[in-house]
Amino acid sequence: MLKTYIIFLRGVNVSGKNLLKMADLQKALSDAGFEHVKTYIQSGNILLDSTYSKTETANRFAQLLEEKFQIKAPLFIYTPEELKKLNDENPFKKDLEPNKVFLAFLDAKPLDELTKKLDAINHGDEQYVLNDKVLYFYLPEGMGKAKLTVNYLEKKLAVLGTARNLNTIEKILSLSAD
Question: Taking a C-beta distance cutoff of 8 angstroms, is the pair 104, 152 a contact?
């Protein structure tokens, strides 16, 4: 039975590193037996259908990425239902600019003591809410001038993560419904 998965890659096509053409990835995934493969923009957003479990799909995807493209990049995999639930749980007002509201997907739940240290830092108008392995954040000045970047959060919380703004999340959810 085919199951749809959404995959977010961390650190591809950023600052000239881990360059990966989405069209090449799409073809490689299709050739490997994944179906209905779609990508959205160049930052590593992939939708595909798979006969494998979520874990096996993630493992096969990572293996293909390394073998075909020599890229080892953390990936975060969700079903459309899981991503929709995470999006629905976003604590920030829906009337905020969607390109300034982000979901950061984390590879682990941060330790409480690290979260408390982060809470003690003044981040000005930037806000965040941690919900298990997803950190929601709002950057009123946008990502370009932000203190709360993914790299900053990774260092403070000792986790790996990747973030997408609400525009991207909504588009991916829309593509998954097609």
Answer: no
Residue 161's nearest CA partner among 135, 123, 122, 132 is: 135
Task: Note whether 39 and 22 are within 8 A (CB).
Answer: yes
The pLDDT tens digits for 36-63 are 999 998 778 999 999 999 999 999 999 9
Task: Determine the length of the chain.
Answer: 178
CA atoms within 13 A on the CB side of 68: 18
User: Are 103 and 134 within 8 A, CB to CB?
Assistant: yes
CATH code, 3-80: 3.30.70.1280
What's the CA dihedral at 82, 147, 15, 160 to 10 degrees? -40
Tokens found for residue 134: 């997803």
Query: What ranges do the domains of the chain cover?
Result: 3-80, 87-177
| pTM score, whole prediction | 0.93
Beta bridge partners of 77: 7
Q: Which two tokens stand for residue 78?
A: 């969700």
User: Which CATH fold would you assign to the domain 87-177?
Assistant: Alpha-Beta Plaits (3.30.70)
